[in-house]
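Consider the tokenized backbone below.
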């Protein structure tokens, strides 16, 4: 197949879990297919076009005018798709807005089926956004296929669609599939008893990093925060105010992040909302680390509380503190959860997940 992947950002640069997954899929799909990634040229010093790891990256200029930027993105993405030779068989659009909107519009005009891959619950919390309430159902209806990352995402999306746009439920249900994130399984190592707490993610309010800082300060645990974002200065100030032992690493490459997983005694995801199927949890479990997380979207499909992780209510600092103290006081429990987590993570091995996406894309390209 000839596959074009559309995504707003692509490593290096500003990226999160969706972008890292897009990079992973581009690398693996390019072993058997022709793959082109179409993304923004952000930051502006990135090359406009490059070939790496078997696939091509095409980067488009970004307007600095907020409202005009959307219209400019739609036009430039469609133009970029139209310029590809040979013409793609299918467009794989990461996120509903703006890639999904651009992909379905371009696909309709150029006769190319577009598949929209929803990457987080914020995309279908349509009651929280007039923009998404108007755009998202139309994009999903226009797509040849729609993907989510977990059964919880699927159920939540359909329930929200029933409330906001009931007339579109049946049409979307018929083309809605579940394909999880993929990962390369690392070697599992014993959990270090005195290792720090690790939290990984973009430093934005929805990630709940302030709660992690508070819980680590209250439980006397050292904390490593891997990631960057607009909340970093405020979080650094909070760590100083709480007297917490916190190391901020910024964004880390794969090898450096793997080293942080290896030295951690527990990995925490305290997200308040916005998650799809969190990479950080799958990666932590793959490394054989016990995890503590809030029950956001796909997390509910990953964790069984007390078996392969601990689940705490979103925003509950006291519960998070107690969970950290519980694991520190019971190394045997931590080891059992780590082993169970590793077993859970094995089902996300690329070798298991990739054939399912290829089958879905092959089916929808003939739609």
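A designed sequence for it:
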């Amino acid at each position: 197949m000839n596959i074009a992947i559309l995504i707003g950002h692509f490593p290096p640069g500003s990226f999160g879990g969706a972008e890292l997954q897009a990079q992973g899929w581009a690398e693996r799909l390019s072993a058997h297919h022709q793959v082109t990634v179409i993304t923004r040229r952000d930051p502006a010093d990135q090359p406009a076009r490059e070939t790496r790891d078997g696939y091509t990256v095409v980067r488009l200029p970004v307007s600095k005018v907020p409202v005009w930027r959307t219209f400019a993105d739609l036009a430039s993405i469609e133009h970029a798709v139209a310029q590809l030779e040979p013409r793609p068989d299918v467009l794989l659009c990461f996120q509903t807005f703006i890639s999904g909107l651009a992909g379905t519009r371009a696909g309709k005009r150029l006769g190319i089926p577009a598949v929209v891959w929803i990457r987080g619950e914020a995309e279908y919390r349509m009651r929280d956004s007039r923009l998404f309430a108007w755009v998202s159902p139309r994009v999903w209806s226009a797509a040849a296929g729609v993907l989510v990352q977990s059964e919880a995402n699927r159920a939540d999306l359909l329930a929200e669609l029933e409330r906001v746009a009931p007339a579109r439920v049946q049409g979307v249900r018929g083309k809605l599939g579940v394909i999880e994130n993929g990962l390369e399984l690392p070697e599992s190592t014993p959990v270090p008893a005195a290792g720090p707490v690790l939290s990984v993610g973009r430093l934005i309010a929805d990630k709940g990093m302030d709660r992690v800082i508070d819980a680590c300060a209250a439980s006397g645990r050292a904390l490593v925060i891997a990631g960057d974002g607009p909340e970093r200065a405020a979080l650094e100030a909070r760590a100083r105010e709480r007297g917490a032992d916190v190391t901020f690493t910024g964004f880390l490459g794969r090898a450096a992040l793997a080293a942080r997983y290896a030295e951690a005694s527990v990995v925490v995801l305290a997200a308040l909302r916005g998650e799809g199927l969190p990479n950080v949890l799958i990666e932590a479990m793959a490394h054989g680390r016990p995890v503590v997380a809030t029950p956001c979207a796909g997390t509910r499909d990953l964790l069984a509380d007390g078996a392969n992780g601990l689940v705490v209510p979103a925003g509950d600092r006291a519960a998070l503190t107690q969970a950290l103290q519980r694991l520190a006081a019971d190394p045997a429990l931590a080891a059992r959860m780590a082993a169970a987590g590793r077993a859970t993570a094995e089902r996300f091995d690329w070798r298991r997940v990739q054939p399912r996406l290829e089958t879905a894309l092959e089916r929808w390209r003939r739609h």
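The mean pLDDT is 93.
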